[in-house]
Amino acid sequence: MSTPHVLLGLLSAGPSHGYDLKKRHDERFPQARPLAYGQVYATLQRLVRDELAEVLDVEADGGPERTRYRITEAGGRKLADWLHEVAPAAPFVANDIFAKVVVAILAGPQGASGAYLQAQRAAHMARMRELTHIKTAPGAPLSSVLSADYALAHLDADLRWMESTAQRISTLEKEVRDS
To answer: Most C-beta atoms within 10 A of its C-beta, which of 25, 101, 108, 117?
Structure first.
């Protein structure tokens, strides 16, 4: 996810403080990693530097200063360009699970790769139960439901891959050890 573009998108709804942007990000993208405040403010500084956002005003109200930002015309064009880009399919898949299976074959005792797959499967199933609970909770916001659906589809694909790999693990072990 492109944090600068997401923050520009959130700013397109109207001027906002960094604190509110972080809060709205975490609400709108519930399954994404929450943004750190430092990341929000560093990104806002870069957006201002690049003239994609600007400082609207600074409020003090007897407490710490609160800066309100707004998107610029250039920021709106940059956001529109980004929204029209089709996200390319990844040319290579970085798969930690597959890497661990191969390393377990190389470095672990006989059967370590199969045991790892079983443990990983259990972890995936637990996460799928959590996501199912989130998406079926009464009154769950649609953004949470759709985010959970996306994550569930990916976890399901991983599970299917794990099942296929488990069925062929002895062949993989022989291939890895013999090469």
So the answer is: 101
Judge whether 48 and 15 are in contact, CB under 8 Å.
no
Distance CA(29)–CA(148), nearest Å, equals: 10
pLDDT digits (tens, 9 = 90+) for 24-76: 998 888 777 888 999 999 999 999 999 999 999 888 777 778 899 999 999 99
What is this structure's pTM? 0.69
Q: How many CB atoms lie within 10 A of CB 13?
A: 9
pLDDT tens per residue, range 128-146: 999 999 999 999 999 889 9
